[in-house]
Design brief:
- It is a single chain.
- The protein is mainly alpha-helical.
- Among the domains are: 16-181, no CATH class; 280-331, no CATH class.
- Helix content is 54%, strand content 3%.
- A hairpin with a 4-residue loop joins strand 1 (313-317) and strand 2 (322-326).
Amino acid sequence: MRLDQPFWCDWPLAEPPKFLTPELLHHWHKMFWDHDAKWCICVVGDAEIDFQFSVLHPHRFHHFKEGISKLKQVTGCKHCDVQHYIIPIIAGAVLKCFLIAVCALTDFHYLSQAPEITDETCMKIQDALAEFHKHKDVIISAGGQIGKKRKVIDNWYIPKLKFMQSVVPNIHDNGVAMQWSADPAEHAHITEIKHPSKSTNNQDYESQLCHYLDHADKCRQFNLATAVHEASINFQLIDGSPCNEEELQDVNDNKSDLDSDLDNPDDPKAEVLDTVTVSALAGMQSGAHNPGDYFALAVRLQQGLHPHAPHPFQTLLDAKMALYLNQDPSH
């Protein structure tokens, strides 16, 4: 299979519209920004549309004080804000058929995002798309279809526009499109990739990000260990009954089991941990304490002097500090 061919090209009787579900951020909001908004900017004019957006009152949505024609790296939230304003902004500045085409496509986007869709709603979605196709030629005749280097485009070879034909059949087969939102993954991309990348020098990008996330995870576990110690929590007594040796080992299990406890709302340990406030130790911040002999502490762990320390994550607590080690029991 060539790289320019889709992954289903050798699947007999494959129907992509049945397994390629619509996704709001890219198929609706990004489609609007890449095409609908660009049509309006080209027809109305950069200066006029920027002025109209700049004088809008910053009441509820984002205020575009410098307009929208020169925006770069626009987020999905701003796509939505522009979409809220675009119809009244261009009304009176474009031909009636042009306004109807853009309004019909906007109706299609909004109706398809409904959390509950009935057969009547599906008919309205199809009617809105048909209304757009009925009036779309005026967009080209008005000079709205402009490509790179201001080159006029006289066709409708837009994959996302073609994909709209399968939205209603896909809703019948797979349910409402709202459930396939990529917002959680996009948010994780911001918190786990974009923000950490600001701490790198753009050399060995992947390696630096992995080191950053690894250090952040170790800091999180260290803060949790010190917070539990400062709160004087005794997990053996939380359930109201004494623990045997096997239950005690479960209490002192590794990080993954602790995370599963936190995800379980019925676990009493989760309720206690929710009340723990993570705070930095004053001695660590001031640097006044003696850091101690880490090698001696590691030897004590290896000799089994702390039998209830979890494996492979070893956390040792004493009066002044919490030591976190990643020890391989096989060594």
